[in-house]
Amino acid sequence: MAHINMIAAGIDVGKARLDAQVHGCASRFGAANGKAGYDKLIAWFKEQGVTRIGMEASGGYERGPADAFRQAGFQVALLQPRQVRAFAVYRLKRAKNDAIDAGLIARCTAELESVRAPRDPRLAAMDEHLRLIEQIEADQARMKTRREAYRTPRLQSWIAREVARLERRLAAELALLTKAILAHQDLADRLQLIESVEGVGRRTAITLTILMPELGDISREAAASLAGLAPFDDDSGKHKGQRKIAGGRSRVRRALYAAALPASFRWNPSLVDLYKRLRDKGRPHKQALVACARKLLIFINTVVARGSAWEKQAARG
Predict the structure, then answer these.
(1) What does the alpha-carbon distance between residue 199 and residue 281 come to, in Å, rounded to a whole number?
(2) Per-residue model confidence as pLDDT tens digits over 172-212
(3) Burial of 25 (0-12, 13-18, 19+ CB in 10 A)
(4) Are 208 and 255 in contact, with CB atoms under 8 Å apart?
(5) Which helix (H) or strand (E) holds 232?
(6) Which of 14, 152, 210, 230 could disulfide-link 225, Cβ–Cβ 3.0 to 4.6 Å?
């Protein structure tokens, strides 16, 4: 149900253009996705009495307008594309174009019960840097795979140089991002707490510091859900389906899964025990590893919440 005295607008975000519509009326406006366009839209929103603006996450093209509208005093809701698609299905809307999408987003925005507080701007910049690091890692992995497919000495030599170049670039970018985190005492303290948990290295700790600022302020169940590590029931009547994980923050989940693999075999005795128990019960390797990743996240959330480093005996009890 829409909130009283709240007028919502929706924006269909494109690389070059923003199409906006106010919920509950036919008022529409379009402008370029750039500073001049933001200024025009801000003036138009104020004329329409808009207080809340919704838009889909759109590959980063939404970041500029979202920041501009927040600075202008509007509530800004960033919606997941699947939220809008589900809302369209619920409303039996099948037609699609920029204007229709803007109206649909406006209606979806109006019915939101609340809008999440804007992200810490420090973390937003660090997130962009982290994304570059992830892309370098992906390039490096592809190059290493490619190296195995070639036998010509010249090509092998070139690929080896590329792998070495990417390794140097990766180390340099990680050092710069670490330095940026350590420049802020609160983030440095959080990084240190996360890194104190057995099995969590600097790379994983950086990801969680930047991408899960909620850690320490939420329940273990909420943390698992945010990371996409919470198993969901698939039951109906007498049917008992297999519980599966879904959704959540894929980059966080990948980082935890990668950390859980060595941690559950060597570095974290609690996870070693958990993995063994699950495997002894006949659970598949991947399912046991997901459980270890979820447990690792629970350890991290607990450590951050209490504000003191990991204690082996307390954590294993």
Answers:
(1) 24
(2) 999 999 999 999 999 999 999 999 999 999 999 999 999 99
(3) exposed
(4) yes
(5) strand 231-232
(6) 230
User: Do the Cβ atoms of 45 and 9 come closer than 8 Å?
Assistant: yes
Is the Cβ–Cβ distance between 102 and 182 less than 8 Å? no
CA distances from 301 to 224, 270, 290 (A): 10, 16, 17
What is the signed CA dihedral for 106, 109, 110, 116, rounded to 10 degrees? -150
According to the model, what pLDDT value does residue 239 have? 40
The pLDDT of residue 296: 95
Amino acid letter, residue 126: M
Distance CA 199, CA 262 (A): 7
At residue 109, the pLDDT reads 86
- Within the chain, how many helices (H) and strands (E) appear? 13, 9
DSSP assignment letter at 2: P
Spatial distance between the Cα atoms of 308 and 225, rounded to a whole number of angstroms: 24
| Residue 99: pLDDT band with limits 50, 70, 90 | low
Bridge partners of 10, per DSSP, are 21, 54
Give the pLDDT of residue 165: 96
Our CA angle for 220, 225, 230, nearest 5°, is 90
d(C-alpha 109, C-alpha 112), whole Å: 5
Q: What is the distance between the alpha carbons of residues 44 and 169, in angstroms, rounded to a whole number? A: 45
Q: What's the pLDDT at 106? A: 85
Nearest to 65 by CA among 99, 33, 40, 22: 33
How many angstroms separate the CA atoms of 75 and 52, rounded? 5
